[in-house]
Amino acid sequence: MDNKSDAKVTPWEVEGIVDYDKLIVEFGVKKVSTREHYLTESITGELHPLLKRGVFYAHRDYDVFLEKYESGESTALYTGRGPSGYVHLGHILPWIFTKWLQDKLNIDLFFEFTDDEKFLYHREYTLDYVRNVTRENILDLISLGFDPKRTHIIIDIEDISYLYELAVRIAKKITFSTIKAVMGFTQSTNIGMIFYPTLQIAVCFLPTELYGRQTYVLIPAAIDQDPYWRLARDIATSLGYPKPAQIHAKFLPGLGIGGKMSSSQPETAIFMTDSPEDVKRKIMNAYTGGQPTAELQRKLGGNPDICPVFKYYEMMFEDDDKKLKERYMDCRGGNLLCGPCKSELANRIISFLEEHQKKRESMRDKIDEYLLRNKF
Amino acid sequence: MDNKSDAKVTPWEVEGIVDYDKLIVEFGVKKVSTREHYLTESITGELHPLLKRGVFYAHRDYDVFLEKYESGESTALYTGRGPSGYVHLGHILPWIFTKWLQDKLNIDLFFEFTDDEKFLYHREYTLDYVRNVTRENILDLISLGFDPKRTHIIIDIEDISYLYELAVRIAKKITFSTIKAVMGFTQSTNIGMIFYPTLQIAVCFLPTELYGRQTYVLIPAAIDQDPYWRLARDIATSLGYPKPAQIHAKFLPGLGIGGKMSSSQPETAIFMTDSPEDVKRKIMNAYTGGQPTAELQRKLGGNPDICPVFKYYEMMFEDDDKKLKERYMDCRGGNLLCGPCKSELANRIISFLEEHQKKRESMRDKIDEYLLRNKF
């Protein structure tokens, strides 16, 4: 049996080596094509590397969203985070793209922290733990430079009064059979988890409610969140809202063999709060596409296509296309060995994190400026 | 097959002739005994007819609640209403007893309007409809003379911020299997209904949260609500709250043969907004325990035991035990015919409703004084 067909991608578990083309068929989404690239570039003036390099690779109505934006319709961005632990590079990848979109389009971003979901999903989590993690995660988000005037954070439990009426209207349209099929729930799933999807869907429709006019929403997020949006789109029209559009990202890989970066394997993940020593150690221990010895590597060349170290350059740490191509060719040709390639990556990550961590501490008293409840 | 075993009693349906003794066994509750009567009387100085005459007939820890009250522990009352339509006499019966308890014990009453439940349950209901019905129902409640300082109305959707955190803590303890078994849900139940019980349970624990001290809660309500309290008691301790106590009422019968008073059969129900003509017509058309002719009735006597008209005297419109007994004997002995007995009842109901309807209109601008959100 093919390894790829074993991959499991749900909002709560991503296991195995993901076949992204298969997901397009499974989830019934569209591949981002040159048409969407042209449309984006004509509005934004440039193409973000995450789009150009196919990290944001699939979508539903991304083109329609851009056309609505162009024609002056009311639009907004929506994404979020399940505060289950510390934020790592894999989490911020879609946020970086979201910020770019927000800067280029100059529209509001609604950002949901699903504290209820994480409390309900993890048997051992307390509300205090989730609350604290949410605060810490917010620091990582806003340190990326989001504009507080246009960035509205909603925390499910604290801000439930903004969501519950929408949620019951949504819930009335979804039976247990449906949610079971879409989310993979069982008879043993707790009734909080069963209801929770209504709150993630609710934010798709919240901008229309808050602005008092039909608002087209684009959701940039990792592709594992797709089941929520499928449901949201199914019921949007009957509730009187535009269908939300999505643009789906691939996962940043972990530093081991295959699989996405995951907090549950901390030695293969780079957290935003990692020290320079942590980063150095983890990167130097990373799996690569290299040969067993330097001699062999010089002779046979490395394989950047399967190498997480190369992926990190491609996805986050080398914006220059020419230099990225050089790195690829030098690796394949045996001219670039894994040691220096890793070492350079570690240095880039370390300086990125150093700046981030400095900003992060300075943001502790800025959180209030981002909270939706202080603005709507 | 015995008619009685066919009765169906769930929070959403009460069908057939209810065997109240069987419900005690089925639900695992206790019969209210002379011990509870003595305990009540020793605290309140008198026994309310609804208790004395066995309308409030079953309980869980009612005695424990009274003992906690006596020993100076923090206590509160909790009951509620699903705002699905206009209020009838059957609805206010437990409210009358609740008010008596509140007056005697001088403690807070938390009263929940489950607008979300009714919106979610009835396919055709809109939120606007439920909102409007809630406002109308509140008028009927507060017109009974509840003290606004001690009576706190909570409306689920509008006041969700008081309930949601409790609800997710509760939800985490309840699987779909459990809720399905306890509430009789199916695969086609919508996910709002599946989650909703957490909100009815949440109010059991709300007084402890609002007062900041362990608070013993007594719930006077019709017995069909028992499944909620069973669940609430199962999880109370693990969440750190005292188990809520209940005292269960029988249903006021409808004016037809068997069954409880129900809005779905408006000609057999007396609504708080009915005109004198409505009342007269409905009562005069009521089923009774009488004989086919006056002559036969004089000869054989009537049967007050199966007569809804007699039940109305017993449960709501004749507080004087001596007079009630006379009415019973006169009916049995053939000295009291159905015509005058009905006519007298209609008059009593009409004057009760006339006073109620006058008060009701004067309460429209008093609602705010009762809302929990204006006080906590």
Task: Describe the protein.
With 376 residues, chain A is of the alpha/beta class. Chain A has two domains: 3-251, Rossmann fold (3-Layer(aba) Sandwich); 266-362, Orthogonal Bundle (Tyrosyl-Transfer RNA Synthetase). The first copy, chain A, has helices at residues 20-27, 34-44, 49-52, 62-70, 89-105, 115-121, 127-142, 164-171, 176-183, 191-195, 197-211, 226-239, 276-284, 294-300, 308-317, 321-332, 338-362, 367-370; strands at 8-10, 13-15, 30-31, 56-60, 74-81, 109-113, 151-155, 215-222, 245-249. Chain A has a seven-stranded mixed sheet with strand order 3-4-9-8-5-6-7, with helices on both faces. In chain A, strand 8, helix 12 and strand 9 form a beta-alpha-beta unit. The longest helix of chain A is centred in the C-terminal third of the chain and has 25 residues, at 338-362. The first copy, chain A, starts with 7 loop residues before the first strand and ends in a 6-residue tail after the last helix. The model of chain A is unreliable at 1-5 (pLDDT under 50). The A-B interface holds A 116, 119-120, 127, 157, 160-161, 164-165, 167-169, 171-177, 179-180, 185-195, 197-198 and B 116, 119-120, 127, 157, 160-161, 164-165, 167-169, 171-177, 179-180, 185-195, 197-198.
Topology, please?
The structure is a homodimer of 376-residue chains.
Chain A: E1 8-10, E2 13-15, H1 20-27, E3 30-31, H2 34-44, H3 49-52, E4 56-60, H4 62-70, E5 74-81, H5 89-105, E6 109-113, H6 115-121, H7 127-142, E7 151-155, H8 164-171, H9 176-183, H10 191-195, H11 197-211, E8 215-222, H12 226-239, E9 245-249, H13 276-284, H14 294-300, H15 308-317, H16 321-332, H17 338-362, H18 367-370
Parallel strand pairs in A: 5-6, 5-8, 6-7, 8-9
Antiparallel strand pairs in A: 1-2, 3-4, 4-9
